[in-house]
Design goal:
- The strands form five sheets. A six-stranded mixed β-sheet has the order 8-12-13-3-14-15, sandwiched between helices.
- The chain has 638 residues and is an alpha/beta fold.
- It has 27 helices and 19 strands.
Amino acid sequence: MSNEGENQDKQLRRPVVVKSLRFNDGTTLQVPPAGVVVLVGANNVGKSKALQNIASQTGARDLDATEHIVVESELEWDTDKEAAVQWFSERFPTKNLASGTFYEARRHRISVDKAERDVRAGTMSTRIGRLVSVFANAEERLSLTKAVQAIDLAEAQPEHPIHILAREAELIEQLSALSEAAFGVALTLDTTGGNTFVLRLGIPSVEPDFTRHGIPTREYVSALRRLPALENQGHGIRSYAGMLMELLAGSHLFVLIDEPEAFLHPPQAEKIGRAISDLKRHVSQVFVATHDANVVKGFLSSQNSEDVLIVRIKRSGETNPASVLQPKDLEALWSNPALRYSNVLDGLFSEGTLVCEGDPDCRLYESAIDNIDDAGSSGIHFTHGGGSGRIPVIASALTAVSVPTAVVVDLDLLAKRDLLRSIVESIGGAWSSAWDPLLNAIESGVSTLAETPTKATIEKAVLESLDGVNDEDPTPAEALNRIAKVARKTTGWQKLKRGGRAILPGGQCITAFDTLLKEMSDQGVFLVWVGELERWFPAVGGHGPAHVSEVHEKGLLEGPEGAELRLFVEGIRSYLSRASGRGPSDSARTMVQMVIALRKETGAAIRACKEALEKSNGDYDAAKGLLEVQSTSPSSQP
């Protein structure tokens, strides 16, 4: 091996790595030997606590006897113990005292003899832990930016990241460039203060200038002193710089960062995620707990995203199961620009996600759920694929990390059986062999709805559209559009999308539709039984955003016009509540299914549901029992 290869191998070789993490539900996750582990999840699932567990098990903190979410961080030591011992001796400064020789590591002094004994035994003692692992919470990050005691840069071994920055011009330049990119201000390290080294904001107005004796000129020193000290600035830039210093110039193998987004605006949060991933080469492994999708976006957009492990934690009773977003799911999600710049990653921090076809759908269904719940308390995240075709990609990625996911689609999707099947499977559902005959029966009935305009109809439209237009004048665009619209054949699926369940032929077709609607909602796929978004409020004009805005402006969600939509979203909320473990696992079928069970007109079904709930004091199980009795009585049959 060449000298260059030997030096590279020496640099990359680490005395110890975290091999795996074992969670309290028995799940074991393998950790990349030189990667970033990002812990995500909804509120109160234990992300920060899991990070604290890892910190304790790697020696960054004293052992914690309270709740254990990560019950073991399995360590793998270098089999060459002497090489491991040498790594420590080359990494840390030592000090000879009357009681022995000690490693100096910031605020810690560790006996060299005891540390070497622990290394040879492969024991992660608190002594070793203080050398190789750091828990970089907000307080720790802020403290790193304070002025430090000066050292002899030629002779003394560095004891602090600022000492290393003072010796490595390339590192301080990199830190300055990253600060300027995030905050618009560069950083300068002032080593002219005699007893202290100070990080300052900005670049001095005078170029560095020294006498032939190596003494900085008075003009240069004055220019430096006019720059404000970093330690006197806001928490945002100090926390940001502290994290970067820990990665660029820290001495630890394991860096654990809790809530890197603290004090940062969204663009800066995304930049810190990218920077952490790109700078991890300076350490061994980084563990992060975050509540911010912007940080996750930064990780995924970094040059080293293939080494990023996204781990979602959830709470299930007394345990905290963890799941990993696999590289293939990550690539499918991140390679699609329409999804990359959407809000889909916010679903990682939700208790459940509803995936819709478009943004207007999200707006309407979110406001409808808020209407039946305390505003914002549902914990449901709403996202869309910009069309039904991208729904499986989004749903697969969310399902892969155990985000309870439901989907809402318009009725014309029943004509796209392969896509429908893909959507069902993307949220972890199973395509039933019984559904194909049901779809065949529905298709047969829908085909009878198709309309081809008659000659008389077209002639009438032409005459009416051209009435008043002179023979020599150009035909107005409005007239052409009206004629084209009348002359166009209307497919059965187009009519179904505009008319919904109400226009389906009776008998086998409607029975098949009701059965499919009910069974798919059981698996989290909710068919808009009125046809499409705009048909919940048919009296409201417009399409898409304009339609939804008018619904909101007129306050229709709260009134009797919104009753049917409220029933629909109650079914979605109920499904996601059970899927997330917040609702009873044996609860009754949703309100949607109650409506179908009644086989009545919507108005009668709504009244029956309300009466059943009143009689059962709001108990869905009891209400379902009452409704099933009604649905089997002769008077309730169509």
